[in-house]
Amino acid sequence: MGKREEIAVLFPGTLREFIESCSLDFESMREIRLRAGRPVLLMYGNREYGFTEKGEPVELEPDNQKGLFTLTERQIRETAEIMGCLLYTSPSPRDKR
After folding, report:
1. Are 8 and 19 contacting, i.e. CB atoms less than 8 angstroms apart?
2. What is the SS3 assignment for 24?
3. Which of 21, 38, 47, 62 has the fewest other C-beta atoms within 10 Å?
4. Phi, psi (deg, nearest 5) at residue 88
5. What is the distance between the alpha carbons of residues 7 and 22, in angstroms, rounded to a whole number?
6. Can you tell me the distance from the alpha carbon of 33 to that of 89, in angstroms, rounded to the nearest whole number?
7. What is the rounded average pLDDT of the residues 33-54?
8. DSSP 93
9. What is the share, in percent, of the chain residues with pLDDT greater than 90?
10. pTM of the model
């Protein structure tokens, strides 16, 4: 499984689809920032990207983040639940011995 697939499974629905089809190299991805009601931000190298409402990654301009894909509080909670389930069900290094 590649880095893109490892990251995509952490997110629900539309954001997962955007990540799976994104043209950016996820090996160089430093951070994905999620905030309810604010654009999803991708920290890639020394640049920030967001997704358009159609899922296309665009480099952000400092004063213009309009028309970018945002998450609701419910979607943030779903993401946290997915991450919590994956952490709980993943084998620990101790279990791999």
Report:
1. yes
2. coil
3. 62
4. -70, -35
5. 12
6. 24
7. 90
8. G
9. 27
10. 0.73
CA-to-CA separations, 69 to 27, 40, 51, 89, in angstroms, rounded: 22, 6, 5, 30
- Token pair belonging to 58: 């665009």
Q: What is the pLDDT of residue 58?
A: 92
Calpha distance 8→42 (Å, rounded): 13
CA 25 and chain centroid, separation: 13
Dist. CA 50–CA 39, nearest whole Å: 7
Average pLDDT, the chain: 83
Scored b (16 or more CB within 10 A) or e, 39-54 reads: bbbbebeeebbbbeee
Name the token pair of 73: 């509080």
Cβ neighbors of 12 (< 8 A, separation 6 or more) are: 75, 78, 79, 82
Q: For residue 74, what is the enclosing H or E element?
A: helix 73-89
